[in-house]
Amino acid sequence: MIENQPKKPSKSDRTRAQILEAARLLFAEHGYDGASIRDVAAHASIDPAMVIRYFRSKDELFARAAVVDLQLPALRVIDRTTIGETLIRRFLEIWEGPASGPGMAILLRSATSNEFAAEKLRDVFGNQVRPVVAAVADPAADADRRAGLVSSQLLGLAMCRYLLRLPPVVALSHDEIIQNVGPTLQRYVVGEDVS
Amino acid sequence: MIENQPKKPSKSDRTRAQILEAARLLFAEHGYDGASIRDVAAHASIDPAMVIRYFRSKDELFARAAVVDLQLPALRVIDRTTIGETLIRRFLEIWEGPASGPGMAILLRSATSNEFAAEKLRDVFGNQVRPVVAAVADPAADADRRAGLVSSQLLGLAMCRYLLRLPPVVALSHDEIIQNVGPTLQRYVVGEDVS
DNA sequence: TCCATTTGTCAACGACTGTTGACTTTCTAA
DNA sequence: TTAGAAAGTCAACAGTCGTTGACAAATGGA
Known about the structure:
Tetracycline Repressor, domain 2; elongated; 2 domains; DNA-binding; homodimer; 67% helix; Arc Repressor Mutant, subunit A; mainly alpha; 195 residues
């Protein structure tokens, strides 16, 4: 009899959720170093010591905050000619839609100076992006290379548009992104490739 | 009679250069926050106070270390069908060749959590990448958008290959990068575009 | 009501940070 | 040789950081 979720949403659960929400917001905006535990506590209207009580350390808080589930669609079932478009559409949903949290922003903001975040980001690539691309890559041996190229374009777009906020990339409409980046991803995934 | 370079390479000049070299190395590897003045001083085998004496503050030291000159080739004179290839070749030289310093790595490593680095990176885009693309973009009005797309791909590739060190992207050979990313850049710069 | 557990408050710790000023050593020009 | 500038050393400052432990308040079941 394993009961993972005892029915009472005790008071501590709410506090715990508040801390986590504040942490996700501040980590996404200022990165691991830039968001102090005191900042998180202030943003959650709570004492800094409570942050440590609920999450044992800043590292563990960051680990809890930096969870990412891209929920990428299976590419096998859709039309083979619209793979690139499907990918970039899902990408825009993840970043700008309300459902997906700031998980990717959290990782990307800290990955350049925090080895844990970098490793986590490599994990997201290996366990979420790569399998989806591998399922449709023509010679299976090319799967890694194709997935890597896809990641480089998507990650660069995210950097320019959401983190660096490069004006001309911010100005791009959804349709412009889909019609320009879609074909790139399409070629990276199923295009004829170099040996 | 303006003499910008008095002939004597005084002792202080050498020390100054040592500090700057150590700073560029550490900033490129650990970012602005991750590289302390004490680290830089230790790496240059001098006292931390000297770093402040020669450069007035850490911010100023970082500003001096984060200078970038891409020396992008003028795209007008070359064959219009090899623009993408030319760009990606130059990109690889900048990152892996011995001539260009770690300037781009310094900026990219800190741009996600340091507003000065972010602004400087946007400057590099606006003053070095954009003009080169604008010179050949077909409707001049598209120049910004095209330059932005080019930047997103190049910046993403740099992130994955040199900072994040994503294994399949690190494993790519120069030829593979040229033959895969080249066409992408070609289309971004001179391909038919969406309104 | 009473007591034990939970939840929250407060002050402080040691470590690290950028930066400063007083001091000594070294070099250079007269 | 000597005075003055340049170069380098050292200890300490004020601030921030993550983290801790002692203590008070609130809560909830018996």
